[in-house]
Amino acid sequence: MAIEVRIPTILRTYTGGERAVESTGASVAEVIDALESAHPGIKERLVEDGAVRRFVNIYVDDEDIRFTGALETPVAESSTVVILPAVAGGAVSDLAAQGPAPLPA
Amino acid sequence: MTRFANLIESVGGTPLVGLPTISPSADVRLWAKLEDQNPTGSIKDRAALAMIEAAEADGRLTPGCTILEPTSGNTGISMAMVAKMRGYRMVCVMPENTSEERRQLLRMWGAEIIPSPAAGGSNEAVRVAKGIAAEHPDWVMLYQYGNPANAGAHYSGTGPEILADLPEVTHFVGGLGTTGTLMGVGRFFREHKPEVRIVAAEPRYGELVYGLRNMDEGFVPELYDESMIDARFSVGPRDAVRRVRELIDSEGIFAGISTGAILHAALAQAAKSITAGESADIVFVVCDGGWKYLSTGAYEGTLDEAEDALEGQLWA
Questions:
Q1: Staple partner for B76: which of B71, B91, B102, B122, CB 3.0–4.6 Å?
Q2: From start to end of chain B, where are the E strands?
Q3: Least CA distance to A99: which residue of chain B?
Q4: Between chains, do B268 and A62 touch, taking CB under 8 Å as contact?
Q5: Is beta strand B16-18 parallel, antiparallel or unpaired with respect to A80-85?
């Protein structure tokens, strides 16, 4: 049984438009390496300097891997890996670029 | 004490209730912090009051001032209530496709509403609000995602209340939006009972909501500090709706959809405690009641129908 990896809309250019692909590996790092072999270029969008990129969240069975061992988080054969961009409750994608509210003069 | 000089003084001090039916065992217990019992019916009364009082204290807000906030939700309603009591003018910028119930509630509490284009959603509302703020430098935007007083309300209120009511608490589970609740309660327990684990429940929306142009354009609120939490669960609308229905069926609590997501994470934590053979007292937040969400379709029909109805909606 392969591990299911769910791909967000903006990374589906790497997976030929597929919303979910199969991968293998015993850890998130191995799953991403296998993903890279099948879909070259995707790893660089997820990982930077050996860590998950700031605006990327990766979940193994709905739990954020930053709190379960990061890229070394174990992945079981029956696991689902979900990749999502970080958004706020209000889906404000360019808020970060705008910075906090200006203080009154 | 249950007597107050005015409504604002009654913010906080919410009940903590045991959940004998939904708790998985006698040793792993769930407790609900009923934030829907705040004056305007949501946990946001705490943050709105704290942000306004902080701005008063540092001189940004003075009598007759206008408060501006891009919000269509609970924060706007809470700010409008406090602004009314304190004599400020309240202006909310909200997308024109927001529900009529929200508009009526805001108007009832005296807020003025400036519509922003539907396309672009909250993004656009923030952009419009920032433009308006630039034109009116005397107006005050409190900006809940980056305002330390938001987390401060939970550091000085929610956290201490929980510890006083349940000294044996082992876990706190809250929703992750502005991150104010988790940052404030998390910091309080880090300082006063560091063995308490802080668990975040993050709503997972439909694809439309994540339609960013680029993976580098995500958003992490300025308040967020990863070191304040110990686990973070992503919860989709199906699980949130399932749990919100369980909560009313088993315990009689009628909560909003985001509370369903938080309960789901609390039960995931409870299952881990049972597997580990540990006893646990898990406190989770009931953010608001279900009233404002009846029109979403979450409370009727099958789970499939509710899940379809919530697709593309910001349900938490």
A1: B71
A2: 16-18, 28-34, 66-70, 89-95, 112-116, 140-141, 171-175, 197-203, 231-235, 280-286
A3: B222
A4: yes
A5: unpaired
* B59 backbone φψ class: left, alpha, beta (φ>0; ψ -120 to 50): left
Interatomic CA distance for residues B28 and B108, integer angstroms: 43
The predicted model gives B114-139 an average pLDDT of: 84
Contact A9 B234 (CB under 8 A): no
Contact B215 A63 (CB under 8 A): no
CA distance B117 to B127: 11
Q: Which letter, b or e, does each residue of B14-31 get, where b requires 16 or more Cβ atoms within 10 Å of its Cβ?
A: beebebeebbeeeebbbb
pLDDT tens-digit series, residues B40-60: 999 999 999 999 999 999 999
pLDDT digits (tens, 9 = 90+) for B85-114: 999 999 999 888 777 788 899 999 999 999
> What does the angle CA B221 – CA B95 – CA B314 come to, to the nearest 5 degrees?
55
Instruction: Name the closest residue on chain A to residue B138, using Cα atoms.
Output: A104
Catalytic residues of B: 44, 258
Residues of A in contact with B202 (CB under 8 A): 64
Q: Which of B204, B234, B272, B313 to mutate to test the interface with A (most CBs of A within 10 A)?
A: B234
What is the residue-level pLDDT of chain A in tens, covering all 105 positions?
689 999 998 899 999 999 999 999 999 999 999 999 999 999 999 999 999 998 899 999 999 999 999 999 999 999 999 999 886 544 333 333 333 333 433
Residue B266 burial (CB < 10 Å; 0-12/13-18/19+)? Answer: buried
Residue B315, CA atoms < 13 Å, CB-side half-sphere: 38
Instruction: Count Cβ atoms within 10 A of the Cβ of residue B43 and give its class: 0-12 exposed, 13-18 middle, 19 or more buried.
Output: buried
Rounded distance between C-alpha atoms, residue B284 and residue B74, angstroms: 19
> How many Cα atoms are found within 13 Å in the side-chain-facing hemisphere of B251?
21
Which of B199, B219, B235, B315 is the best residue to mutate to test the A interface, defined by the most A CB atoms within 10 Å of its own CB? B219
Looking at residue B297, its pLDDT comes to 86
Nearest-CA neighbor of B154 among B178, B186, B176, B200? B186
Q: Which two structure tokens, joined as six digits, stand for B68?
A: 């501006």
Mean predicted confidence (pLDDT) in B15-41: 97
Q: What is the pLDDT of residue B215?
A: 63
